């Protein structure tokens, strides 16, 4: 037998999914995260799940994991000592940034400090014209002096970003060669390798971030790879990227900034795969863990992609899945502000000490503690009984920090905490849907993460979303996503061109050169030619616009007649995004993008052959307090084991469905049914059929 293993590292728990490639059976496991050394929890989780299922290490044929190492290094400012070499006259560009402020109406809000301080930013005489032709050759002697100075400074990483190098990287290549010759042990990141497209500040920011994170990721990846091999796993692990694809460790070391949101991206990939198996093509993903909640939108089976996102306040000009994160997790701390108002988050209790209910020393009230007080979590323990809950501790911290500072009763305080965190998350869904021209009622909500099941019903009700999909193992859904994705690499070129027959030769040349690069990478990753594919996009805008819109194109459309189809498609996309489009406006092509895909084996998800269409009796009952119901108060609530439910089984709310990795709450007005893929489909507004029996 051969097995696939996916590992997702979260702020509170590390999730592991094990798939039998032959039988399609899936096993899940969770262990507490180890923020100081994430690889420790990863290896512990892998070793435990293999041991529990009596599987030898050498039978693992595929291993992938999502990592938070890059993000954590940036948050904690624990990256490498990094220097920056730029064109003379542009030393302070990284500091000047853009005129936009972090918060428009907060005059005192400061921009984050740059990852490269002023004393480590150096200029070199060189200059290109905007078209890439050389105006001033690079001053080699000055460059060598800078490199020798950096050796004395004992930097461990260098970023190189020259003006207009995206059109002609000749000077950056010279600089990289000299750095490697004179300072071979240093990590080097050049902008023409990381983000070869225009807009100077995002390019220099992305390159600097990549250099800052490079040595940290290199050390982590090498240690992780050695740990994997030392226990007898015969394969090299893959790493998830922010675009939802995976890549080998070697490739991720050269571009660590591409892994900035790799963990949340895996959940979006899993949801997209889910849409292929079901009739739900339009999805809003809701991933609630212990620290935060992530939201994204999938339209017609395709996740939305952003060409530039901020990572901890810094622009990163790389393709990322369009994910919005809010400080709203199970560990989010409830507090009273100076005006006496109840607030929740963004600070989290994390995994250490965690919520008071976990009995690890937590002394502040959290969302999890509120759920415990209202009876929504099993007082006898969670994680299949492996973790005890201290109900009295939850009551005590809410009483001390909320009730004693307000006129709220214990039930009112706990209900208020959940109402506030749900309202915060509702705004997150509106941001990715309503504010982008989408109605939530046209989508289904996919709920996953350890905390999502307790809040998805309330969110769907508030947003008028008709259905909620809860996967079979929502608490480990991201780690499953690692087993249903493909190798993916994005390439880009910039050249401002008018759409027309004269520009087609240049455009085809750009696409052809990028396809060659993609083919070489896929060959290096041992992807068979029959498993390779490419997608093409052109970033288009009206002349004078500040930003452009990506327009998908086909190779066959790169003809004088086909260009009109591209322009027509741009007008439709522009109207959808902005509410109008000027059919007579002058248009220009800006960026040319190729995405290379390498298809990998997927974890098989087995469809049930028969359906047992009946209402299921609860295994027990518990009084649960519902403030979301039309008549708030305690309800006699049926308790179900997820493992007892089969395809076609139906459940009437109020109900609680328990499983190892999460707890799912069905409100009194709602119902649920198990589909052939063992997904729990919650009908937000009821619609339960009567038991035919």
TrEMBL record:
Q: Tell me yes or no: is Heme among this UniProt entry's keywords.
A: no
Q: Which residues form the Acetophenone carboxylase-like C-terminal domain?
A: 506-678
What InterPro entries does the entry give? Answer: ACX-like_C, ATPase_NBD, Hydant_A_N, Hydantoinase_A, Oxoprolinase-like
- Taking every annotated instance into account, which residue ranges of this chain make up the domain Hydantoinase/oxoprolinase N-terminal? 5-181
Superkingdom to which the source organism belongs: Bacteria
Output the SUPFAM superfamilies linked to this UniProt entry.
Actin-like ATPase domain
Ranges of residues in domain Hydantoinase A/oxoprolinase: 203-490
Kindly state one GO CC term assigned in the UniProt record: cytosol
Any one GO MF term held by the record is: 5-oxoprolinase (ATP-hydrolyzing) activity
Q: PANTHER family of this UniProt entry?
A: 5-OXOPROLINASE RELATED (PTHR11365), HYPOTHETICAL 5-OXOPROLINASE (EUROFUNG)-RELATED (PTHR11365:SF23)
Q: What is this protein called?
A: Hydantoin utilization protein A
Q: Which organism is it from?
A: Priestia filamentosa
Q: What is the lineage of its organism?
A: Bacteria, Bacillati, Bacillota, Bacilli, Bacillales
